[in-house]
Amino acid sequence: MSWPEHIAAKIAGEPASSYEIECLGKDGQRIAVEINSRVILDKGVPVAIQGIARNVTDRRRAEEERDRLYNVSNDLLATISFDGTLLHINPAWEKNLGYEGKELIGRSIDEITHVDDCQQNAVNIERFRDGVCVSFESRLICKDGSILWISWNSTPMVAEGIFYAVGRNITEKNTPRKSSSSTRYTTN
After folding, report:
1. How far apart are CA 145 and CA 18, in angstroms?
2. Cα 133 from Cα 110, distance rounded (Å)
3. 2: how many CB neighbours lie within 10 A of its CB?
4. Is residue 149 within 8 Å of residue 183, measured between CB atoms?
5. Over the stretch 50-96, which tens digit does the pLDDT of each residue have?
6. What are phi and psi for residue 186, nearest 5 degrees?
7. Residue 150, strand partner residues
């Protein structure tokens, strides 16, 4: 929505809202500006718009850098709820396991975890509830049924009921276990 469209929406009765626009700074550089505004009424008639503009260029750049790192990482990055539901995953999950993101988001991590490692997941989640960071190894079942050994480092956010997990494929480095990874499994 353009700046004039935002103004028209405010006059038409849109409640207080926040939006971003791009402007040119004094130096000619583009800056990102977040605008919070509301309509001021006098006897039910709009008479003014009150707003605050804030330069959010640095925040936007930091978010873009974070997103780039998230999207290019070869490691599995995930946000997982304390009940084991995958909330956010990066593209490395598809690259390593063969599943599209939409096939995994909203599903339990246990659905793609080797059956012998599911109990370990339950124990780890209890440790997350206590605020303990956990490092461990487990096996994940790829879409084609093959098995990958993953080394995990996970950090809980107790107040939010989630944990952040970083997983590295160690299948090739784990020579003694490599032979067991050739077995094919199926998931529901």
Report:
1. 46
2. 19
3. 8
4. no
5. 889 999 999 999 999 989 998 999 999 999 999 999 999 999 999 99
6. -120, 150
7. 138, 169
For residue 43, give every residue at least 6 positions away whose Cβ sits within 8 Å of its Cβ, in sequence order, or none. none
Mean pLDDT, rounded, for 111-134: 94
pTM of the model: 0.71
With the C-alpha atoms ordered 105, 108, 109, 111, is the resulting torsion angle positive or negative? negative
pLDDT (tens digit, 9 = 90+) per residue, 11-49? 776 776 788 889 898 999 999 999 888 888 888 888 888
Check if the beta carbon of residue 39 is closer than 8 Å to that of residue 13. yes
Kindly report the backbone phi and psi dihedral angles of residue 39, in degrees, each rounded to the nearest multiple of 5, phi listed first.
Answer: -90, 140
For every residue of the chain, DSSP letters joined together read: --HHHHHHHHHTT--SEEEEEEEE-TTS-EEEEEEEEEEEEETTEEEEEEEEEEE-HHHHHHHHHHHHHHHH-SSEEEEEETT-BEEEE-THHHHHH---HHHHTTSBGGGGB-GGGHHHHHHHHHHHHTT--EEEEEEEE-TTS-EEEEEEEEEEEGGGTEEEEEEEE-TTT-HHHHGGGGS-----
